[in-house]
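Record minuted for everyone:
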Amino acid sequence: MVVEGGVVAVVLVREYDADKDRTAVEEVENKCEVGPSGELSLYTDLLGDPICRVRNSPAYLMLVAEMVVLGGGGDEERREIVGMIRGCIKTATCGTKLSRNGKNCTVKPKTPQLQPVPLPIYTKLAYILGLRVSPSHRRMGIGLKLVRRMEEWFRENGAEYSYMATENDNQASVKLFTQKCGYSKFRTPSILVQPVFAHRLRLDKRFTIIKLGHADAETLYRRRFSSTEFFPRDIDAVLNNKLNLGTFLAVMKGSYDADTWPGADEFLASQPESWAVLSVWNSKDVFRLEVRGASRLRKALAKTTRMLDRAVPWLHLPSAPEVFRPFGFHFLYGLGGEGPNAVKMIKALCGLAHNLAMERGCGVVATEVASREPLRLGIPHWKSLSCAEDLWCIKRLGENYSDRSVGDWTKSPPGLSIFVDPREF
């Protein structure tokens, strides 16, 4: 509550109402920068749907902070949306436990002796994103109030942990969550971004790429990656979502093709020495991004590279993407693989994803991987467009856990890989 000159201003936090709040929320979004402050700023066009970035999650909520100004006589003078926050809840892998029960083996061993198999331990996990406070109303405790109210909803719905992602150099956000909200720094994955050129990329002819059906993709992910940190238990809902453009498997040429593909069960029972997989999510139909604040010279140079690339595509010039007006992108998720050629296969799969994005008019292709991910060596990206160290912060919401054998997840060491849910990117 703010009192000045007999005028009282009260900030109310309530659920977002699409019918009456959409325009005001869009105005706040347009005023807010996403990313570190500086010459260039990244803006988000939500395509008229402020809930779009959480709408595909199993459970979600959007809250708004509304400032109500009262006159000296207590009469209401005006209302103004000054902030918002979005949150969602899912069940995801937070750790593993070993089982010697042969029935639980994800892959049949080559020897009669059964080996311990890591089985996933799931937890109900909440995620905070899209916290915005109007620049004219910052440093008034509005962001803290929004976070606390969202956490109340998380607890009411049984969430055991809450996490959020921010840029490592976004000091205002980091201080709010770590110093005032009780979060701790947890993981530092990398966001890798590759521009979409005006020419198609050549794919390595040593490999065959097969598009998997939803059932085979689910089988492969559950049996090979369900013990990966942050793996969503409802992976079937992700794979069957209309925004999922497909799951693609790379193998050595001559081993399998679309006609001889035996199905995921048989593939896993006698898997080849090397293989790799990834899925493609169509973020272009959810929201668009735009880089603002670029100089005329920078825009002109970027435009020149694109013109040359279109004029002489056979030269395969690395043209800069059109990021100075709203652009869409495809997100690559579920990256994984095994064997000595897995890195090269991931590179081929990324090339396929690039060509798909080019056909669909995207500006960039993006993915996010753990800082120690072995396969990241095969992911093409531009350093100038990427974020080497994103920051995830986490908080334990309660003392009751679905499986106490995991202990306190917030204190666990990072693994080699994480599973980034495309619904939360």
Remarks:
- Confidence is low (pLDDT under 50) at residues 102-112.
- The first strand starts at residue 2 and ends at 4.
- The domain at 189-388 is CATH 3.40.630 (Aminopeptidase).
